[in-house]
Amino acid sequence: MKIYQITDSKFRKYGRILKNVDTHALLHEMEHTPLPEDVIYIPSDSKLEALPVYQQFQNEVYGELPIQIGYCNGNNYFLNAVEYHRSSEINVAQKDLILLLGCQQDILDDFTYDTSKIEAFLLPANTAVEIYATTLHYAPCNANPEGFRCVVVLPKDTNLALDTSHKKEGEEKLLTAKNKWLIAHKDSGLEGQAFLGLVGENICVK
């Protein structure tokens, strides 16, 4: 599939580039985070949250809402699933990576989604973007064989375990964690953990 630059006009409906955020110390600290052969996601990392950029993200980007800074690192080439939140997500690439993105508005009434609508974007190293709340996304994909490291900033407690049980009907059947609605592909290995509503190819960028 074609991989667009985030400077392409096609990216504008999915998010925006954050140009006035000093991520130097953040990306330096990210060099010490693990880079496994699969994918690891840590919602909140105390060392990242101790950096001055935490206050800038919280005050300027999230309007003083409590936030968390974590990371998603590893190696991945497949779409596997899409998720969305009720809030924007900030991604900062420590290594070049590929984001597979779609629009929540294209989810059908039965909560299925056609993967042919997904578009791919290269997020270069040392670049920060805001991914809008209505943008479907999931784990980044490799832009090179060395894997990826990606800072993930979200409102506090996003992606943590739910406190209560939810109905397995309507949109509630997509809720798999706090502030996380998830639709998976049948080939993702997530059967029994998420609603299998992705229709079409499990996109691979390799």
Molecular structure report:
- Helices cover 10% and strands 34% of the residues.
- The protein has 206 residues and is mainly β.
- The strands form 4 sheets. The protein has a 6-stranded antiparallel beta sheet. Strands 1, 7, 9, 11 and 12 form a 5-stranded mixed beta sheet that branches.
- Strand 14 and strand 15 form a beta hairpin.
- The N and C termini lie close together (9 Å).
- The mean pLDDT is 97.
Task: Summarize, please.
The chain is mostly beta strands and 206 residues long. The protein has helices at 24-30, 46-49, 53-61; strands at residues 3-5, 15-18, 39-42, 67-74, 81-84, 89-93, 97-103, 113-114, 119-123, 127-131, 135-136, 141-142, 148-155, 175-177, 180-184, 195-196, 198-199.
What would the principal axes of the Cα set say about the shape?
A: globular
For the sheet with most strands, the description reads: 6 strands, antiparallel
Measured as a percent range, the helix fraction is under 10%
Low-pLDDT runs: none
Rounded mean pLDDT is 97
DSSP strand content: 25-35%
Strand order of the largest sheet: 2-10-6-13-4-3
Number of strands: 17
Radius of gyration: 16 Å
**Strand pairing plus helix content: what structural class?**
mainly beta
Instruction: Count the DSSP helices.
Output: 3
SSE order, one letter for each helix or strand: EEHEHHEEEEEEEEEEEEEE
Which terms would index this structure?
3 helices; five-stranded mixed β-sheet; 34% strand; 206 residues; six-stranded antiparallel β-sheet; mainly beta; globular
